[in-house]
Amino acid sequence: MKNLFVTLSLYNRWANARLHAAMAALSPRTLAAPSAVNFGSILAIANHLVLADRLWLNRFTGQGEPVPSVDAAPYPDLAALAAARRAEEERAEAFCRDLDPARLGETLSYVTTDGTPMALPLALCLSHFFNHQTHHRGQIHGLLGAYGIKAADIDLLGFERETATCAGLSG
To answer: What value, to the nearest 5°, has the Cα angle with vertex 127 and ends 102 and 57?
Structure first.
């Protein structure tokens, strides 16, 4: 499982870079254009992803500045957003690489953003962390297409074909 999570952290970095390259083809106005999707625009979805990643990584590591809301858009331009994105990707990869596999069988106790105490298996929470990113990247990918941008493939198997990462993580 640890190797899978390391692979997913590397995949996320790769997929996010491809998506951000496609987003750069849009004007700032189009990136922030209101849409009937979660969080209201491409830029807002991308901000949500950074904030949600930060929130979960804080929970996983017990470190980091508080994240009062995952609905905010603190990064109004792609440059600031990309820098914040990279910082969370580095944290995710470091966490997964340093993860003691025995922890995957443990329970993660945390408090939700609405104040509800929760306790769930860490492996499930990590799976959610990566699945959540995939879900919202898919929304962004679809919105880019609606604006006439043909974004590069961001499938996990495309990542593996291009990088052969899994071959280097066996064992």
So the answer is: 80
Neighbours of 148 (CB within 10 A): 9
Quote the pTM value. Answer: 0.93
* 119 bridge partner residues: 109
Residues listed for the chain: 171
158: tokens are: 């495309």
pLDDT band at 38 (very low <50, low <70, confident <90, very high): confident
Distances (CA, A) of 135 to 38, 83, 104, 129, 167: 11, 21, 23, 10, 26
Q: pLDDT band at residue 164, thresholds of 50, 70 and 90?
A: confident
Q: Which two tokens stand for residue 138?
A: 């898919």
Nearest CA to 44 out of 26, 56, 32 is that of 32
Percent of the chain with pLDDT over 90: 89
